[in-house]
Each structure stands twice: as C-alpha cells, then as structure tokens.
Amino acid sequence: MLEKWLEFSQEVQEAKMVNKPVVALESTIISHGMPYPQNVQTAREVEDIIRKNGAVPATIAILNGKIKIGLSNEELEFLGQSKDIEKASRRDLPFLLATKKNGATTVAATMICAELAGIEVFVTGGIGGVHREAEITMDVSADLQELAKTNVAVVCAGAKSILDIGLTLEYLETQGVPVAGFGTDVLPAFYTRTSPFNVNFRLETAEEAAAMIRAKWELGLTGGVVIANPIPEADALEEGFITNVIEQALQEAKENQITGKQVTPFLLGKVKELTEGKSLTANIALVKHNAEVGSKIAVHLAK
Q1: Does the annotation mark 247 as catalytic?
Q2: Could you give the count of Cα atoms lying within 13 Å of 284 in the half-sphere of its Cβ?
Q3: Containing structural domain, residue 81
Q4: Number of structural domains found in the chain
C-alpha cells in the first residue's frame, strides 16, 4: 500500500538499488523559511554539497497526492515561488495527500517521510521545540514528539533561538532523545554557536556519530537522535545582539496575535528584517554546514 503514496526521483531510486547513502532534506525551508530566489538557490547548493560528500540528496515534499522523495529542478522552483503551498506536519499529511494538495514538509513530516522511504539521516536548519510562554499557550512543536518515536537522525544547528531552549531540552530528555554536540559541549542556538545550555554528549567525528546512532537502533531504542552542529564561526551572529532582536520579534508577534503554525515563519521574517538580512545569511551558512556533516554521517552509517 505504501508504494501508492511514495514517489522516488530517479537519482534516489538508483541510490537505493546500490545501497548508496541518502540524506533527507525538508521543503518548509524553501516554501516558508527563505525568500525567493535565495530559497531555491540554497536548496540546489545544499544538494550539491551532499553529492560532493558521497551521498545522494532527497528533498521531500507533498506534490499532487504523492510524497515525493527527491525533487526535480522544476519542482524546487515551484516550491520556491508558489504561494499555494501548505506547511505540512504529521497531522496534515493524510489530508494533503487525499485531496492532492501541495505541502512543504516540516521537520516532523520530513522525519516521517524519510523513515517510510528507508532514509536514516535528515539535514535541516534547526529543530522546532517548546515555544516561550508554552505554559500558557501549550505551543509545543510536533518536531519533539516525532523525535521521540521516529528512527531518523537529525543534523541541525540546535534549536531555533526563538524558542524556550531549556524547556525544549527538558522535553527531549523526558522522551529519551539524545542531544549530541558535534565538536561542542554547548547546545548551539541556530544563529549563534552557544547558548546557556549543555548537550548530553559530545561527538568529535562523523564516524563516532554514526556508531552512536547505529547502537541506539540496534538496541531497539526507538526515536531519533539530535546531532547539534554549531554554525561556522565566521557566519555566527553575536548572542546578545540576536537575543535583543528575538525579544523584539516576540513582542510584535504577541501584539499581532500571531499563533500556531504562523508563529515561526513570522518570527523568522521579523528577525531577518531587524538584522537587515544578516540572519538569512547565517541561516544559509548553517544549513550548508549541516549538509556537509550530515552527508559524512550518512556515509559512515551505510558502512
């Protein structure tokens, strides 16, 4: 029955036939995370980085009633330019597929689709988490629940700094999700290399990361792994500066009564505006860096 919903690009199909490592990529970053044309350009560059490091990229999206595993250039352009793309998380997948609507997959949805397609590593910007004031709003990203139950390793630049990072880590700990720092003891916070919080474990190499991930799943411990990879030093923003910007963006979101799935795109757009585009440059740099690390991990996992 699954074949009815999944559609592989030729490149991914061929990779799977010869057991070549495949790395999943989300599409929300294209449709809702960056402006055109930087979104499509970044998507193509990230795919090329994965190829250069010995793996095959599989950008995932919901198009015309199918879960597409690997996208053509035309499909990337369509996602980057169309205004009629839904933001697709776990709860949205059945509806979008049944009604043949188009959806860009979030971290949660990409993890689900990657696992269905037999892909073990997923590269993204930053994971969602517990939003600030979640004790009032109950706004907790579905990404965290997905990490608790779906066997996909997520390489990211930590949690987005618009979140309550402390509560996000508490949630992941409760669900038994390991948060490992790649060459760091401190959890990176997306635009910055540091935050006031430590990771659970430190890994120095892609080989070590692959060994830990494999051990987890061979023990039957279901759920994902967070590999937190700090943004390169040259591209990082200063912690105090970005903290002030985020406080301002959160205030505006509250004043405009923005809630639910609109919160993250609003905040990221506002942060870009308030940093005069510096946050977009940082976002592009960190995704590329994650692609490099993620593809190396995928190569070792395939061994």
Answers
A1: no
A2: 17
A3: 2-302
A4: 1
Is the distance from CB of 23 to CB of 58 less than 8 angstroms?
yes
pLDDT-derived band at 1 (thresholds 50, 70, 90) equals: confident
* Interatomic CA distance for residues 84 and 122, integer angstroms: 25
Q: Please say if 160 is a catalytic residue.
A: yes
User: Could you tell me the CA-to-CA distances from 93 to 70, 90, 112 in Å, in that order?
Assistant: 17, 6, 10
pLDDT at position 207 over 90: yes
Q: Which residue has the tokens 């073990």?
A: 120
- pLDDT computed for residue 217 by the predictor: 98
CB contact at 8 A, 210 and 227: no
Q: What percent of the chain has pLDDT over 90?
A: 87
- Give the separation between CA 243 and CA 259, rounded to whole angstroms: 21
Partner residues linked to 121 by β-bridges: 23, 153
Q: Which is the catalytic residue, given 160, 261, 272, 278?
A: 160
Q: What is the CATH number of the domain that holds 8?
A: 3.40.1790.10
Q: Report helix, strand or coil for 174.
A: helix
Which of 11, 26, 120, 146 is catalytic? The answer is: 26
pTM exceeds 0.90: yes
